[in-house]
Write a structure and sequence with these properties.
The structure holds two protein chains of two kinds.
Chain A: E1 3-6, E2 11-14, E3 19-21, E4 23-26, E5 32-38, E6 44-50, E7 56-59, E8 62-65, E9 75-77, E10 86-93, E11 101-102, E12 106-111
Parallel strand pairs in A: 2-12
Antiparallel strand pairs in A: 1-4, 3-9, 5-6, 5-10, 7-8, 8-9, 10-11, 10-12
Chain B: E1 4-7, E2 10-13, E3 19-25, E4 31-38, E5 42-51, E6 54-57, E7 64-66, E8 76-78, E9 87-94, E10 108-109, E11 113-117
Parallel strand pairs in B: 2-11
Antiparallel strand pairs in B: 1-3, 3-8, 4-5, 4-9, 5-6, 7-8, 9-10, 9-11
The chains are: A mainly beta, B mainly beta.
């Protein structure tokens, strides 16, 4: 079956630091990959996505590249801000009726 | 604005009571989903529906029930049979691709309902 593994937090960084949150997956075929962000007390919002190998998704300074050879979709940002503090979820979809398979989430804390 | 509305945002329930969480969407999406979120466990799928009057169990359906009488609405009932109902509940929907395939793979979420059993 499908599964997503991501580093568990909390991950604590200083403002302007470089961010990497690792995500690897197991799936049949060629899934689409996603990063969602959840701010405190809210639902999840799509941050970025990639639908085929070597695609790079990007949004709000965040980037992730779909690496089929390493089955990875690591999230990166060059300079984080306090406002980036949130929980980040990696997810995949094979287009199945049951939606997405999510990782357990990574809590990111950015200190001023 | 198009989106998903969940209500209530906070809900308290006594043990032994059923409670229904509302989820309404005006995105014209066919597919709708209910997830449960617990600290450190990510999102777990409770029920999903691809079309009106049809729905399927997810990974943790025991103690929950749903209905899909209208395309826009997918209410979740947490019954007294659910052993540990205190959690954050998220409703989501998904649209079709431009080519008409069933799922784009992109979920749109509501803001969630936090249920506490006293």
């Amino acid at each position: 079956g499908n599964s997503v593994t991501q580093m568990e937090g909390p991950v604590t960084l200083s403002e302007e630091a470089f961010l990497t949150i690792n995500c690897t997956y197991t799936a049949t075929g060629y899934p689409s990959l996603f990063w969602y962000v959840q701010y405190p007390g809210e639902g999840l919002q799509l941050l970025l996505k990639a639908t085929k190998a070597d695609d790079k998704g990007s949004n709000k300074g965040f980037e992730a590249t779909y690496r089929k050879e390493t089955t990875s979709f690591h999230l990166e940002k060059g300079s984080v801000q306090v406002s980036d503090s949130a929980v980040y979820f990696c997810a995949l979809s094979n287009g199945g009726a049951d939606g997405l398979t999510f990782g357990k989430g990574t809590h990111l804390i950015i200190q001023p | 604005d198009g989106g998903i509305t969940q209500s209530p945002k906070y809900l308290f329930r006594k043990e032994g009571q059923n409670v229904t969480l509302s989820c309404e969407q005006n995105l014209n999406h066919d597919a709708m989903y209910w997830y449960r979120q617990d600290p450190g466990q990510g999102l777990r799928l409770i029920y999903y529906s691809q079309i009106v009057n049809d729905f399927q169990k997810g990974d943790i359906a025991e103690g929950y029930s749903v209905s899909r009488e209208k395309k826009e609405s997918f209410p979740l009932t947490v019954t007294s049979a659910q052993k540990n109902p205190t959690a954050f509940y998220l409703c989501a929907s998904m649209g079709r691709t431009s080519g008409g395939d069933l799922n784009t793979g992109e979920l749109f979420f509501g803001e969630g309902s936090r249920l506490t059993v006293l």
